């Protein structure tokens, strides 16, 4: 997850950056009077500030490290190649926002996402994508805690995502998370299959975690 060890700004009050943003955004009320919205988040993003939005609360995001970025790219590149070869749908790069809940709003930015063909609105909005993907990849950063990771996985699954790939570069493993099922934890000697998302896909994880 590119958020590293996220913290809720609600719990700590406004930092100087957020105070400056609020002074420039007449639509934002003082902290505590109402939740932030997708529109607020989009404005902050356009001004270069990096947050996700969970039930109306802003969560800070930090840049990913080298190990994080390399492992994420290896996995998403191999999956994306299969998707485009078979015209299964569209893939989205890291930090693409997906609004998966309204009132209060939740907009998350996975490390990678896939949406099946025919599900995207036409034309595709220039802002955040107003639906839950079919498959998402979340890569853990060193500061991520197990409860934080699990909370985000459950947010995705409760929104209708078929499967969440929980990638741990440091431990060289991938967990496949599905609603109502036990995590399927895969090591470099295992093969990743995603029959419920795209039948016929098979990826030896040794290609993601070369020795």
Give a quick rundown of the structure.
The protein is an alpha+beta fold and 211 residues long. It contains 5 helices and 12 strands.
Commentary on this structure:
It contains five helices and twelve strands. It has helices at 9-12, 16-24, 38-46, 66-85, 146-158; strands spanning 51-54, 57-60, 89-92, 98-101, 106-108, 112-116, 135-139, 163-168, 173-177, 184-186, 191-193, 202-204. The protein folds into two domains: 9-60, no CATH class; 66-207, Alpha-Beta Complex (tt1808, chain A), CATH 3.90.1570.10. β9 and β10 (184-186) form a beta hairpin. With 211 residues, the chain is α+β, with helices and mostly antiparallel strands. It has a six-stranded mixed β-sheet with strand order 3-6-7-8-9-10, sandwiched between helices.
Describe the secondary structure blueprint for this structure.
Blueprint: H1 9-12, H2 16-24, H3 38-46, E1 51-54, E2 57-60, H4 66-85, E3 89-92, E4 98-101, E5 106-108, E6 112-116, E7 135-139, H5 146-158, E8 163-168, E9 173-177, E10 184-186, E11 191-193, E12 202-204
The number of E-state strands comes to 12
Strand content: 15-25%
Major sheet: order of its strands?
Answer: 3-6-7-8-9-10
**Poorly predicted sequence stretches spanning 5 or more consecutive residues:** 2-31
Shape summary: globular
How many DSSP H or I helices?
Answer: 5
Task: Classify the fold: give the CATH topology of the largest domain.
Answer: tt1808, chain A
Biggest sheet architecture: 6 strands, mixed
Task: Please trace the helix and strand order, writing H or E for each element.
Answer: HHHEEHEEEEEHEEEEE
Could you estimate the helical fraction of the residues in percent? Answer: 25-40%
Mean pLDDT across residues: 83
- Named at the architecture level, the CATH assignment of the largest domain is Alpha-Beta Complex
Indicate how many domains the architecture comprises.
2
Kindly provide the name of the CATH class of the largest domain.
Answer: Alpha Beta
């Amino acid at each position: 997850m590119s958020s590293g060890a996220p913290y809720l700004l609600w719990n700590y009050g406004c930092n100087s950056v957020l105070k400056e943003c609020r002074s420039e955004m007449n639509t934002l009320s003082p902290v505590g009077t109402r939740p932030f919205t997708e529109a607020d988040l989009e404005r902050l993003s356009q001004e270069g500030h990096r947050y996700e939005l969970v039930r109306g609360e802003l969560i800070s995001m930090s840049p990913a490290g080298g190990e994080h970025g390399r492992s994420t790219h290896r996995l998403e590149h191999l999956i994306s190649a299969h998707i485009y070869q078979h015209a299964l749908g569209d893939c989205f790069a890291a930090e693409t926002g997906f609004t998966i809940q309204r009132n209060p709003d939740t907009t998350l930015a996975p490390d990678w996402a896939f949406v099946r063909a025919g599900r995207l609105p036409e034309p595709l909005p220039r802002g955040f994508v107003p639906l839950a993907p079919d498959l998402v990849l979340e890569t853990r950063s060193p500061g991520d805690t197990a409860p934080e990771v699990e909370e985000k996985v459950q947010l995705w699954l409760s929104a209708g995502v078929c499967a969440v790939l929980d990638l741990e570069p440091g431990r060289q493993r991938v967990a496949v998370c599905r609603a109502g099922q036990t995590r399927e934890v895969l090591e470099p000697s295992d093969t990743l299959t995603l029959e419920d998302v795209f039948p016929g896909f098979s990826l030896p994880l040794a290609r993601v975690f070369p020795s």
